[in-house]
Amino acid sequence: MRKFSKRFGRLGTETAFAVGADAAAWASQGNTVYPFHLGDINLPTPKHIVEAAMAAIKAGKTGYAPGAGIMPLREKLAENVGIDRGVQYAAENVSIQPGGKPVIGKFLGVLLSEGDEVLYPNPGYPIYESQIEYLDGKALPYGFTPVAGGFAINREEIERQITDKTVAIIYNNYQNPIGAESSAEEMQYIADLAIKHDLWVLSDEAYFDIRYGGKSESIVSLPGMRERTVILYTFSKKFAMTGWRLGAAIGPSDFISGISKFNTNYESCSNHFVQYAGIACLTGPQDPQLAIIKELRQRRDALVNALQDINGVKVSKPNTTFYLFPDVTEIYQRKGYTSSAAFRKDALEKTGVSFCSREHFGRRLPTENKIFVRFAYSGINVPQIEEGLAKLKVFWES
Fold first, then answer.
1. In degrees rounded to 5, what are phi and psi of residue 200?
2. What is the pLDDT along the chain (398 residues), one digit of tens a residue?
3. Rounded to 5 degrees, what are φ and ψ at 390?
4. Burial class for 146, CB neighbours closer than 10 Å (0-12, 13-18, 19+)
5. CA triplet 216, 288, 318: central angle to 5 degrees?
6. Measuring CA to CA, which residue among 363, 364, 369, 377 is closest to residue 325?
7. Are 26 and 33 in contact, with CB atoms under 8 Å apart?
8. Which of 50, 99, 172, 180 could form a disulfide with 204 if both were Cys (CB 3.0 to 4.6 A apart)?
9. Structural contact between residues 20 and 37, judged by C-beta atoms closer than 8 angstroms
10. Is residue 72 reached through a cis peptide bond, with omega within 30 degrees of 0 on the bond before it?
């Protein structure tokens, strides 16, 4: 039988789904599962957005759309994103995508030649590493250092890896899985680095609008960055639309034209009638989105309080995303674990609490010496959080 390609063998996956399979198997045996493992949202898409999609279907918007997306959505998204980030965009700077995730592979596909190097956050979204290596690039991971109130980028790891073959850096401020947020000084450091080494930047801004305090900032707002940055934008998080698959790449027009060329080759176009739902997101009432944020804030507070109440857990309270990344080193060592998989599965089988380990977000770096896990609170309500964490507290403190 003919073998698969060598390139296919380098393709990774979103490993959090494997944790979901373990949780589903445990639940199928009649057990209660408290789902902290997957960043899906168990809140309904706002009604006016659903109605806009239905109206578009009834109006016959069920055929092909332009490869780069329908013009009204591109124009409105350019305006909206530009205002929020203090820059100017036009429709030519926007390519509509079937979700945010395709932007990663298409950005790299436009940019990479064999052997080109890309810096990416680790722990981070696993598709970065997967797509870099699949497309014949070399993945250069940079990590984070725990600091008061969260995490800071390990600058030494970035700088010692840059060579004349390094072409880009992936920057995920408001970061999955660690919930980290750059200071203004750290963001400026990334911008200065990109300019100094002539790097393209993929600014993954999936969680830009999932914010509980303060104001989000984008690296495109800094001098010299608009012309070298592509924004990954998605409707999934802000509007509870994970299954609708609607996102966009936003950046310099020549780069965006290249991404739209991939659209034509891969999908022909993004779903036609869903794009009208996207217009409703941007032009309709914003109260439903504020209600989503209010609910997520309540979940964050409940989860932070419950984790901080467990002896041996260290966790900060981020102002963004819907993830917590607690340090559980003390519990891990006290209970004698030597495997993060065993640590995770024991918690599931003893308490029903399902979470991801650090290893689900990239290969552990040599500089790491602590044990972290990720809790997502987008798919679980406050009573479930409190009930599940009460059980976990008993187990981890025993």
1. -75, 155
2. 678 887 787 777 766 778 889 999 999 999 999 999 988 999 999 999 999 999 999 999 999 999 999 999 999 999 999 999 999 999 999 999 999 999 999 999 999 999 999 999 999 999 999 999 999 999 999 999 999 889 999 999 999 999 999 999 999 999 999 998 999 999 999 999 999 999 999 999 999 999 999 999 999 999 999 999 999 999 999 999 999 999 999 999 999 999 999 999 999 999 999 999 999 999 999 899 999 999 999 999 999 999 999 999 999 999 999 999 999 999 999 999 999 999 999 999 999 999 999 999 988 888 889 999 999 999 999 999 999 999 999 999 99
3. -65, -40
4. middle
5. 35
6. 377
7. yes
8. 172
9. yes
10. no
* 6-44+288-397: CATH superfamily: Aspartate Aminotransferase, domain 1 (3.90.1150.10)
Amino acid symbol at 8: F
CA angle (217, 219, 220) in 5-degree steps: 105
Half-sphere exposure of 355 (CA within 13 A, CB side): 27
Domain at 62-283, CATH class: alpha beta
Please give the angle made by the CA atoms of 194, 197 and 199, to the nearest 5 degrees. Answer: 50
Amino acid at 354: S
Domain boundaries, the chain: 6-44+288-397, 62-283
Beta strands in the chain (DSSP E): 34-35, 94-97, 117-121, 138-142, 144-147, 150-153, 166-171, 200-204, 229-234, 247-250, 323-324, 353-354, 356-357, 373-376
| Contacts of 25 by beta carbon, 8 Å cutoff, 6+ apart | none
Beta carbons of 366 and 122 less than 8 angstroms apart = no
User: Cα dist. 53→50, 66, 126, 277, 394 in Å?
Assistant: 5, 17, 31, 5, 47
Residue carrying the six token digits 């609607």? 246
